[in-house]
Design goal:
Chain A: Keywords: Ion transport, Iron, Iron transport, Signal, Transport. Chain A: It comes from Halomonas korlensis. Chain A: This is Iron complex transport system substrate-binding protein. Chain A: Belongs to the bacterial solute-binding protein 8 family. Chain A: Its main location: other. The complex is a heterodimer of chains A (299) and B (657). Chain A has 299 residues and is of the alpha/beta class. Chain A has 2 domains: 114 residues, Rossmann fold; 138 residues, 3-Layer(aba) Sandwich (Rossmann fold). In chain A, 42% of the residues lie in helices and 13% in strands. Chain A contains 12 helices and 10 strands. In chain A, the strands form 2 sheets. In chain A, strands 3-2-1-4-5 form a 5-stranded parallel β-sheet, covered by helices on one side. In chain A, strand 4, helix 5 and strand 5 form a beta-alpha-beta unit. By secondary structure, chain B is mainly α. In chain B, helix 18 packs parallel to helix 25. Chain B folds into 2 domains: 318 residues, ABC transporter involved in vitamin B12 uptake, BtuC (Orthogonal Bundle); 261 residues, ABC transporter involved in vitamin B12 uptake, BtuC (Orthogonal Bundle), CATH 1.10.3470. The N terminus of chain B is likely disordered. In chain B, strands 1-2 form a two-stranded antiparallel ribbon. The longest helix of chain B is centred in the N-terminal third of the chain and has 35 residues. The chains are: A alpha/beta (299), B mainly alpha (657). At the A-B interface, helix 1, helix 3, strand 3, helix 4 and strand 6 of A face helix 3, helix 5, helix 7, strand 1 and helix 16 of B.
Chain lengths: 299, 657
């Protein structure tokens, strides 16, 4: 654990030991081999690590992770590294991780991080290639880095099985869906090609009604007038910003949306829209449950 | 100076021309389906017709909103310009818009309930507060036009810095406000038009009632008073009305730049003289300008996966317009004079400097030894901790020194204590280049970023030199060029951040000015650069003692004023570009350090430079260290920390300005 060549500072070593102890106690993982200790700046990688049964040593912006990614929760032992774009280097060095995971967004940090531990830059949501395959790829790569290849395959398999199960539960001939998240009362992010939600829809055999272009993160920022005339069932992903539901009740354009008028609108609790397998599974479960409920109401 | 614009174009002709463009753009949109149906959609929705639905609930209200907002902002602009006798006064230049923006950010984080109760009151409070601050800053200088605009810029920068801090820590929660801050006119019904129209009408009515008394303000104060007008209440009433209209517009459509500045000035240049004519034509022109811009923007940005907000676009288009306007404006009022630079002189500046140097070494020792880990505070002098702390310390101190020297130079060249390198726009120029690099290159390394940032700074410098060469680098004009460039940077930043791209976080981090990215080799380079450029200022010391006395005195004393200004400016640009690459464009050190040094009693140029450099280094070292400890493990960037600390000092020091 101690950095080679330099005598470790007593306080610091003790700190690391305490951390390690809490880490081992709080995460009763299978003890076949000690996984390398790992830190990550990227929330998508963090959720994948936790899903593989690994408690990362440190993750950036933990409070915000819990607000925006939500599940799976990070264990108490995980150290907050500070901002994602500027993790605290002194703190990071004092944790002496074996490996640092980043995504291309933080590539400019890698020379600095490389002085602490080897850095792996794992990409997801690249414009070329199939998103779903990329998510598999990312899961396998992370599994390999933490000696959890078996668990990675298992995670992929259980997720796939779960999605198939969910697909069977879908009502016959479901309407195309239009997935949006409100930015304010007049603007939404609408999710489409190259994003997580779209990948899940494809997996479930559902149709996304948004065929417009999207940015490299799989969404397009539009005013809500662009949604008018799209024949689809609306899926609103929470949270609504403050005051927006009240403003929407007054909005002629919104009240004329087909889904709002026939009350078939679906509201889903927040799911990290740039996530990997755990987020995909949660999104699929919530979506299918909502679709099921809504059809029962119709009957 | 500006009377050269003979009646080639009357205000009516300008409005007619723009009105025709506006109407043809609108008709083009409507004829895409069916003109008759399109027009009918204004008051009714044809059942089962989606086209008509969108037209009725989105396109028509949006057109109405553009006309209302543009007219309202232009009206507010005329009022501000009339009351302050300042052709550059406008809702954006006086800080009203950025104050409203900041207030809304704070409200949505701390008291979202307020937003449900009434956004316009939150916006109004913020905007009014910001403008009161600008007035307070410029009060002592008799609200001289250039000083007011500079004070507005400082308040804009400060509100911007605070906003950056909030964004840095709450990017996800504030993503909606980023769109609003960039001024989008998109509508989802007639609600907002119904809200805004009575308020703008009321504002227009009040302006009409105030027409006669306000016309009196064209006279000088003494003659106006002899007519029995209470100038104080008249000014307060006029400004209050302008802020009210701006606040209402801004709370609905967000920050829309430059209409309030451009429309009244174009009308004036086109020959409208009397206040009544200027009010009426400006309002019409402003409405048409915003509506036309918005229609064209809707037409051309339709298929993009992101929103191009109209407000930020007018601001981006307005920046070149302002550059074009500046030489054509007559900037009356009291010009900044040298007298204010004389503060009591310290009897022994050397001893004062020694004291500062000792303070600086204490700060350095503190910053190197004391830090935190996951289990709390600890003191250490070990290599593996120092490798993180020492480069940041050197970089912070060096950039503090460079900005302080640059600030001292520019305050002495312009004889204006409000001047600073940030205000020249050089920092802004390199910021635009860096934003472009982060967005357009796949995964840029730090070396690439440094190179591109330098290129941006040099380009801005070239623009500054080209635009000001003919006028012989007159200080006021130079500063106004900087104001225009800074406004352009703001617009680009808003457009980029409004898109909600996750890379925005990186841009915010860099813009807020952090020593984070500095490693030892680059820290050493920066340190050497600071010393070298600092020494390069030495030969200019005689000029620096003479220039604040004014151009005439300087020429009489045998100084070639043009050459002196040009060479000093080059030095300022180099210093600013080097420092900006490390701490971003937002730090106030270049404004504060020279100011504090002067107040401490460093009067002669040599002492002033030395004192400012020491204070600059001290400020940045402290800011960097505090920023790393206050919210541990999150780090507040040094530039941001310096401006937060400095802003507090600045407000306290207002009365002595």
């Amino acid at each position: 654990m101690s950095s080679p060549g330099l005598p470790a500072h007593p306080v610091r070593t003790r700190g690391v030991l305490v951390l390690l102890a809490t880490f081992l106690l709080s995460a009763p993982l299978d003890a076949e081999s000690d996984p390398p200790s790992i830190v990550t700046l990227d929330w998508t990688q963090a959720e994948t690590l936790v899903a593989l049964g690994i408690a990362p040593l440190g993750v950036a912006q933990i409070a915000a992770y819990h607000d925006w990614v939500g599940e799976p929760r990070l264990p108490e032992s995980v150290v907050d590294l500070g901002l994602r774009s500027q993790p605290n280097l002194e703190l990071l060095a004092s944790l002496s991780p074996d490996h640092i995971l980043i995504s291309p967004m933080f590539a400019n940090l890698s020379p600095r991080l490389a002085r602490i531990a080897p850095v792996s830059n794992l990409a997801l949501y690249m414009p070329q290639g199939d998103t779903w395959q990329q998510i598999h790829q990312l899961t396998r790569e992370i599994g390999a880095l933490v000696d959890r290849d078996g668990e990675a395959e298992a995670l992929i398999e259980t997720t796939e099985n779960r999605l198939e199960e969910l697909q069977d539960r879908l009502p016959d001939d479901p309407a195309p869906l239009l997935m949006v998240q409100f930015m304010d009362a007049r603007h939404v992010r609408v999710f489409g090609d190259n994003g997580l939600y779209q990948a899940v829809l494809e997996r479930l055999g559902l149709t996304n009604a948004w065929t417009g272009t999207t940015n490299p993160w799989g969404f397009s920022l539009v005013a809500i007038e662009r949604l008018a005339g799209i024949e689809a069932r609306l899926v609103v992903i929470e949270p609504y910003p403050a005051g927006v539901p009240a403003e929407l009740r007054e909005s002629g354009l919104w009240q004329h949306q087909a889904s709002v008028r026939d009350e078939s609108l679906i509201t889903l609790p927040p799911v990290w829209s740039f996530g990997a397998l755990p987020s995909a599974r949660r999104f699929a479960e919530q979506l299918v449950a909502a679709l099921g409920e809504a059809t029962h109401v119709d009957d | 100076m500006s009377t050269t614009s003979r009646q080639r174009l009357s205000p009516a002709a300008v409005c007619l021309l723009l009105g025709m463009v506006c109407i043809s753009a609108a008709v083009t949109h409507l004829t895409a389906a069916d003109l008759g149906d399109g027009l009918r959609s204004l008051w009714t929705v044809m059942p089962g017709n989606v086209e008509s639905l969108t037209l009725h609930y989105s396109w028509w209200p949006r057109l109405g909103m553009a006309l209302l907002a543009g007219g309202g902002l232009a009206l507010a602009g005329v009022l501000m310009q009339q009351v302050l006798r300042n052709p550059l006064a406008a809702p954006t230049t006086l800080g009203v818009a950025s104050g409203a923006n900041l207030a809304l950010m704070l409200a949505s984080l701390m008291a979202p309930g307020l937003l449900v109760l009434g956004r316009e009151w939150v916006a109004l409070a913020g905007g009014g507060g910001a403008m009161a601050l600008v007035m307070a800053l410029a009060w002592q200088r008799g609200l001289a036009p250039v000083v007011v605009v500079l004070a507005g810029l400082v308040v804009n920068l400060y509100a911007g810095a605070l906003g950056m801090a909030l964004l840095l820590f709450h990017q996800e929660a504030l993503k909606g406000l980023l769109i609003w801050g960039a001024g989008s006119l998109a509508q989802n019904g007639w609600g907002d038009v119904a809200f805004l129209s009575p308020r703008v009408m009321l504002g227009a009515l009040a302006a009409w009632l105030l027409l006669r008394p306000l016309s009196v303000l064209e006279l000088d104060d003494a003659s106006a008073r002899s007519l029995g007008v209470s100038l104080k209440y008249l000014r307060l009433g006029g400004l209050g009305l302008a802020v009210f209209i701006t606040g209402c517009v801004v709370s609905v459509v967000g920050v829309v730049g430059f209409i309030g500045l451009a429309a009244p000035n174009i009308v004036r240049l086109a020959g409208a003289r009397r206040l009544g004519a200027r009010l009426a034509w400006s309002t019409l022109l402003g409405a048409l300008m915003l509506a036309t811009t918005d229609l064209l923007l809707q037409h051309f940005s339709g298929a993009l996966p992101t929103l191009i907000p109209t407000g930020a676009t007018t601001a981006a288009l307005g920046a070149p317009l302002l550059l074009w306007l500046i030489p054509r404006l007559r900037l009356g009022g009291r010009q900044p004079t040298a007298s204010r630079l004389e503060v009591k002189r310290h009897p022994r500046p050397t001893r004062l400097a020694l004291g500062l140097a000792m303070l600086l070494s204490v700060a350095v020792i503190l910053a190197v030894t004391l830090g935190q880990t996951a289990d709390g505070w600890f003191a250490s002098l070990e290599g593996d901790v120092l490798q993180w702390r020492v480069p940041r310390l050197i970089a912070a101190a060096a950039s503090g020194v460079m900005l302080a020297i640059a600030g001292t130079l520019i305050q002495r060249i312009t004889a204006n204590p409000m001047a600073s390198p940030e205000i020249l726009g050089i920092s802004g120029g390199s910021a635009i280049a860096l934003i472009a690099a982060i967005y357009l290159l796949p995964a840029p390394g730090n070396l690439t970023l440094v190179g591109i940032g330098t290129l941006g700074a040099l380009t801005t410098l070239a623009v500054l030199v080209i635009l000001n060469h003919r006028s012989g680098f007159v200080p006021e004009r130079l500063l106004l060029t900087g104001v225009a460039i800074t406004a352009g940077v703001d617009a680009v930043r808003s457009i980029v951040l409004a898109g909600g791209d996750p890379r925005g976080q990186q841009i915010i981090a860099w813009l807020s000015g952090s020593t984070y990215y500095v490693d030892l080799p680059s820290a050493v380079i920066v340190g050497v650069l600071a010393v070298a450029l600092g020494l390069a200022a030495r030969p200019f010391i005689r000029w620096l003692d003479i220039l604040p006395l004014g151009a005439a005195t300087a020429t009489a004393l045998g100084v070639s004023v043009d050459r002196a200004r040009l060479s000093l400016l080059l030095l300022v640009a180099l210093l600013t570009a080097s420092a900006t690459l490390i701490v971003g464009p937002l730090s106030f050190v270049g404004l504060l350090a020279p100011h504090m040094a002067r107040l401490a009693g460093f009067a002669r140029a040599r002492d002033h430079l030395l004192g400012a450099a020491l204070i600059g280094a001290l400020l940045m070292v402290l800011a960097d260290w505090l920023g790393r400890q206050l919210l541990f493990p999150q780090e507040i960037p040094a530039g941001l920390m310096a401006s937060l600390l400095g802003g507090a000092y600045f407000l306290w020091g207002l009365r002595r300005l």
